[in-house]
Every structure is written in structure tokens, then in C-alpha cells.
Sequence to fold (397 residues):
Amino acid sequence: MKIAVSAQDSNLDAKIDPRFGRAQCFLVVDPDTWDFEIVDNKQNLQAPAGAGIQAAQIVSDSGADAVLTFNCGPKAFRTLEAAGVKVYVGVEGTVKEAVEAFKAGKIKPTDSANVDAHSGI
Amino acid sequence: MIISIASGKGGTGKTTLATNLALSIGKCQLLDCDVEEPNSHIFIKPRLIRSRSVSLPVPKVDDKKCTYCGKCSEVCQFSALAVIRKNVLVFQELCHGCGACSILCPVDAIWEVEREIGVMEIGQAGDVHFIHGLMRISEAMSPPLIKAVKNEAEKDMVTIIDAPPGTSCPVIEAVKDSDFCVLVTEPTPFGLNDLVLAVEMLRILEIPFAVVLNRSDVGDDKVDEYCEKEDIPILMKIPMDRELAEAYSEGIPFVEAKPEWKEKFADLYNNIIRMV
Fold:
């Protein structure tokens, strides 16, 4: 099992990046071993449109089974859903805290986007 | 001869200038390319001759033929297609209609369907041939509609283009291929800031330009100073005038409210001709 977390920096103590599509990077964490891989998302930070779709593809390609983030728009959600990746929104704090909340079952997956398109611009 | 009227900042008087210029120079055509909120027709009051729908070709995928190779999503510069597991997702509203996905699909699983993005209306008011675009509500991408309006224009007729505000793609689509561009601004810090951006845009596009200063007797002297420093001619100054504002609010072009302005706009046109 692997969990992708939108992060503002590339370590487990980094704050969650509230924007999914335009997150600084994703930390793809194995919640059992705390091993993690850093997935760069720089190319999407300046994208005029479609950042959420691209980020969703990156996350899907990383092999993650779930995404923890704060805001997820409709196109990103549709893409993640097609990829079979569960989406958890409204997650705050550090990457470590988020994964711990996930492991403890304190957060629930969403069945829809929680913000409108282009909310992250 | 194509003269476009642009501004940088919105609300400086593009439509005022475009419509009054068109009404002062005899036979010409006016293209309202501010398709997100066209308003030149309010002043020109054209008689509608015809209208037609404007659409963009967008991809449709045959799931039976698709092998999920991902070539379509790889080539798309706008993320309008995503291939993920055994799914091809099409985001029509992001598609620019370039057709690359359907051309490059190795198994011919993609064909194009038309998606309406707006309507074009063509009319006539006296000497003025009039065309404008009306973008469909909720549509995000105006350049294809602007391009359609420009393609509909009569060739070899003096053409005035009312451009959208700003300096991004819609404006560039509206002003490119112009022989001359008039930048309308106002003597305020906002007017100056956006004028500078518009000047930079036109220099890149290599379109000759000059400035018209609207509400010229309010604000400060910074626009004058900037134009002098940059050697940009100010072709006309329109003072703040309550009567003109009242006429505008009633949809009356100010060459009708104050006929003495007709000659000033004709002079403006002649000055532009001399500069091209």
C-alpha cells in the first residue's frame, strides 16, 4: 500500500500543500515502513490549465492507492477516480500527521471534488 | 487597413473609441472581438442580417478500438485527454481543437465532433458593416470564436476591431494582423500599469501603435510622462464630460450626442493612416 500526500517540501515533516494540482510535490509514503519517494510536480505549478489532470496522472503512475490533500477539483477527482485512487480531502498538518491519521482510520475518502475547477490558481 | 482598439485595463473606453471611429469614417466594418461581453452593438444598433453557430472540433474516442497506448494524452498540450488504466478521459472544455490526437492515434480510435462555443452575428447599420461574436455562457476559451469573427470579415474594407481588455491570448488573437493598434487608457496608476503591459505586448507583436487618453483631465500626468519618455504619440485626448457619460449610459454614440466630435474622429483616422 502506498499513500500520496501533496506536500510543500520533500520530507515527512513538511506541511501538506493545500492545492492538489499545483502542489509543490507529492510524497508517496509506505505507511508501514515510512519509506517514501518524492514525486516532483514542478511542471504543473505554472500550467495554464489541466494541472489537476496531470497531477492525478503523476500520482497514479507512482502506484499510490490513495491521495491525501486539502483541496481537490473536479477534473483531478474524475481522473483519480478513473485510476482507482481513493481521495481524502480537507487533510491538514504535516505529511507524517496525515499518514498517521490515515493509518488510525481517522479520515474518510471523499466521493466528490470539494472545490470548483481552477480553485488552485 | 485594419485598426484594432485595445487597452490593457478594462473600462478605459475601447468600445467608445471603436464605435465612434467607425461612425465617423464612412464605409467600413466594425468587428466586436470582445466576445465574452460584446457591447458595440448597443451603440451601432445594427440590423441583423444573419447569424451562425461557431464550434470547435473535439475528440471522441471509440472504446472498442482504443488500446490505451496513451499517445493522444502525450501529444495534447492542454491535458484535454487522460489515459489512465483502461479509461480514456476527455475534458472537452480544455480542448483547443488542434486535431493532433486524432491524427496520431495509431488505431484510428479517435474522431472529431463539433462542440458549439458561441454564435456569430452579422449585421449592417448605415455605412457600417458589423460582426460580433457571443461566447456561450460558461465557456472559458474565446480565441477560436475571435478567429471565426475575423475570418468572417470582408477583405479590402477598412476594418475597426474592438478588442477585449488585458494582454493575454484573446487580445493577441484580436489584434494580430492589424496594421495599427490604438491603446486607450486613462491617466490613473491602473491605466498606466496596464498600458505598459499592452505596449510590451504590441512591441513583441511588432504592430505600430499610439495612445488615446480618455477622461484626460482627471488623475495624474504619469501616462503623459511615460508616453513622452517612450516616444509614443498620444493621438487624442477625450476630457471627462458628464454629457458624454450620460449619452453613453443611454447607448447613444457621442458623435451623435456631440456631432462636432465626428471631425475629430475623422482626423484621428487620417493621422493613423499617415502613421502606417
Q: What stands out?
A: Chain A has a mean pLDDT of 93. Residues 40 and 48 of chain A are 18 Å apart (CA to CA).
